[in-house]
Amino acid sequence: MSRSCLIVDDSRMVRRVAGRIIRELDFDLAEAENGQEAMDQCRMKMPDAILLDWKMPVMDGLSFLKRLRKEPGGDQPVIVFCTAERDVYKIAEALDAGANEYVMKPFDSDVIQSKFFEAGLLG
Amino acid sequence: MGDNLKAASRFVYQSISSLDHITSSGPLSQDSVLDKLSDLQRGAKAMRARAIYRAAQSAVDMVHKGQAEDKVHSELHIVRALVVQYQHGLQEILGAEDDLRAEMVPPPQDAQAIQAETINAGASAPMLACAAKPSLLDDMMMPLDEANETDEAGVAQTIDDKTAVDTTVEDGIKASENTDIYGDELSQNIMPLVQFAPEAKQRDALRRLSVLHSDFTGHSQRVARHERLDMSAKPALRRAAKPMQMISFESFMPELTNIVLTTARHLEKTVSISYSALGVDLNVDLANKLRLALSDLSVLLVTQSLEAPQVRRRRGESGAGHISIMASVKLGELSLNIESTGRDITAQDLETASWKQLEALGAILKISRDDNRLCLGINGLHVKALPQKPAQMPMLEHAS
User: Fold this and answer.
1) Strand extents, DSSP E, chain B
2) Considering its fold, how many domains does chain A have in total?
3) Residue A46's pLDDT is what?
């Protein structure tokens, strides 16, 4: 059974780029434009991995992260938090809130692959 | 509220042109650089490309601070990389549209009437199968003249100061609430501006917030029910679940190494990092403050102190910079020695919140330079309960 990854980013361009990378890693793909959409999708089917943007309208990445981790089964997905900030406070905040890994934008397939590998998603 | 693909294409083209102009045209005046970056930011704002906007803002800040040209150029490399990634996403979307065109089906009778209207309006886009997303259809069918007008409106509404942003956002909200008057295209161009405003300014965000609050209250009740049944609803977070009171210094290192190498790669720099710690364990509070300070410091050293390989080679040095972190305990006090083969870090650069937290704990910072090697000594952090480890931790080294 193939694994699934939810990409959460309000930019369609970023979702496309990330989606191509994730598909190459043999993941089934789902997309959400913001944290609220992502939460709705997670309640229907919890993905194995989530690539999560920080700044989004409606519900930002951090709010989503905190809420998801309180959901039943919300501790299961490996969450890779994406940020364009080089502010280590933001990174630390995300890790403290329950993110497993983080990547800095712009990311590439090597970075995503290594993060998924470190998180045990790739064998 | 779909992306306007034509405007996105123009944004990519104009952004790359602007960046090329800045980086390839020889010395430019500060005003000229700022103008180009300002144009780029307007486009990024209209396209909701926040990462590009913020990276450009970092470059603007560096120009304002009179940073060295090579440092500004390093920042511009990041902007360019982000624009290129945006472009790749755009190309994939446009490629998907080509696929849709290939799947074009003969239009039904009522669609032919719409097609005729579209052609009369100046667009020559064919009718697509109904599987096409409405936003894509809108993008394709929008006449170019209208697209230009829309862009000009977007630029006119783009703003130089925060007050103006807020006013425009308020106007935008009003306008977007009355799409009968202003039409979907206007709302499409205003909504990105709305989303750049603080959420508290967005009426729609407040409405959604009330929905979220209701949702959250329900969720809390569900969590409470789980707890009464002794069914833990709390996630077993990897980091939060560690019950340790003491944290080894070396446990910081994978994260620090990651930060250094990731930052270096984005800046197209080559950096190695080594570290050693002689059985240094820290209490959790100190460890957390120190971890943040070291993370800040590592980013600072890579971004500000270590120059690009070509700059280093021009000085006759190795293209790769090096950061060394050594920790030891003397008489119950933690002593850190952080060395970088770069330059130009000052005490002012280190005035970060994380460093202030360490100062509050009694840390003393000493900066010295020797043969282009910067040395930051941090002494005086009192450390309790130090179980000695049997062997010295080996020096580890990573290079990007």
Assistant:
1) 246-248, 270-277, 281-283, 320-330, 333-340, 364-370, 373-382, 396-399
2) 1
3) 94
CA pair distance A102, B226, nearest whole angstrom: 31
The answer as to whether A108 is a domain residue is yes
Cβ–Cβ < 8 Å for B309, B259 = no
Interchain CB distance below 8 Å, A72 and B237: no
Give the model's pLDDT for residue B49.
84
Reply yes or no on whether the pLDDT at A64 is more than 90: yes
Asked if residue A30 is part of any domain, the answer here is yes
Q: Which residues of A touch B354 (CB under 8 A)?
A: 88-89
Q: Looking at the partner chain, which of B54, B195, B353 has a beta carbon nearest the beta carbon of A84? A: B54
Looking up residue A78, the CATH number of its domain turns out to be 3.40.50.2300
The segments of chain B whose pLDDT lies below 50 read: 1-2, 104-202, 204-244, 385-400
- Kindly state whether residue A122 falls inside one of the protein's structural domains: no
The ipTM is: 0.72
Task: Confirm if A46 and A73 have CB atoms less than 8 A apart.
Answer: yes
Enclosing domain of residue A70: 3-117
Q: What is the pTM of this model?
A: 0.43
Q: Is residue A123 part of a domain?
A: no
User: Given this model, what pLDDT does residue A39 score?
Assistant: 93
- When scoring B88, B215, B303 by the number of chain A Cβ atoms within 10 A, the one with the most, hence best to mutate, is B88
